[in-house]
């Protein structure tokens, strides 16, 4: 049994993204609509995701484009306010992701009680956001210092819009990341949000680290659920839950429900025969 069952309540878990609108200080923040609009958009998406049956949610400043790797205080403060105001309505386990700043993600998790964070914790990358460096040893020490040792760490080892600076194959990255850092999960991504995670890449990573949770991080759709979940231990899902499957749109509850119905059917089919029999007898 993986920690997904313990923390989220199921294997093959679906972590749904609750994308936040641009926040104060972001280039596309709408000062006329203000934070009230950002909060209500987040609330509408959260409730649609929960009613649709997702296993967990992850709050992310997705529309803070273009992203920073040293995120400013006003971004974290705005995210903390939104999650704080929604706390009474959150009915599933939740995580946070402050794009793209590992320490700030942990700060937000500690402040809000999030169960997990997803980030770029290790490696050096050439990216759309410039040279993307990390200091995983310092970040993990920071995690301990702020009392967030319980927070599960989801390591994105194939960052979107970035490439490892050294010429290293994915097998080497997966093995060394697990050996050196003991991540709670590895996230394998496509090029951008909504781009399907390469199935062969997932297989290669999982083969190298069979005892580590591996998540498909982008591009899960209703038509590739079986293909992706037959390899991955779960998935982070955002774009396909939106109206018309478009990244910038609001969440479509009907799309969420149809997707999750298919996931639950897949999980039921994948259960060991003994477990199914026990359920029927009860």
TrEMBL record:
UniProt cross-references to Pfam families, sorted A to Z: BtpA
SUPFAM superfamilies in the cross-refs: Ribulose-phoshate binding barrel
Domain of life of the native organism: Bacteria
Family that this chain belongs to: Belongs to the BtpA family.
Protein name, as recorded: BtpA/SgcQ family protein
Source organism of this protein record: Paenibacillus sabuli
């Amino acid at each position: 049994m993986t920690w997904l069952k313990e923390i989220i309540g199921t294997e093959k878990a679906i972590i749904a993204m609750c994308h936040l609108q641009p926040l104060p200080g972001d280039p596309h923040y709408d000062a006329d609509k203000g934070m009230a609009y950002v909060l209500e958009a987040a609330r509408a998406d959260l409730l649609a995701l929960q009613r649709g049956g997702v296993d967990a949610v992850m709050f992310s400043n997705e529309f803070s484009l273009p992203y920073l790797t040293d995120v400013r205080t006003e971004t974290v403060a705005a995210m903390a306010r939104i999650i704080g105001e929604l706390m009474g309505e959150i009915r599933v386990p939740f995580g946070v992701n402050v794009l793209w700043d590992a320490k700030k993600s942990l700060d937000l998790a500690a402040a809000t009680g999030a169960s997990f964070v997803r980030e770029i914790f290790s490696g050096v990358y050439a990216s759309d956001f410039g040279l993307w460096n990390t200091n995983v040893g310092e970040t993990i020490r920071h995690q301990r210092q702020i009392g967030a040792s319980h927070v599960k760490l989801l390591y994105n080892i194939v960052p979107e819009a970035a490439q490892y600076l050294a010429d290293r194959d994915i097998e080497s990255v997966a093995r060394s990341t697990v050996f050196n850092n003991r991540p709670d999960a590895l996230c394998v991504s496509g090029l951008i949000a909504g781009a399907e995670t390469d199935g062969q890449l997932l297989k290669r990573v999982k083969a190298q680290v069979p005892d580590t949770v591996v998540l498909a991080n982008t591009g899960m759709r209703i038509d590739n659920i079986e293909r992706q979940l037959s390899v991955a231990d779960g998935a982070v899902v955002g774009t396909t839950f939106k109206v018309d499957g478009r990244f910038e749109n609001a969440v479509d509850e009907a799309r969420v429900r149809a997707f999750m119905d298919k996931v639950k059917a897949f999980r039921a089919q994948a259960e060991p025969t003994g477990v199914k029999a026990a359920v029927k007898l009860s």
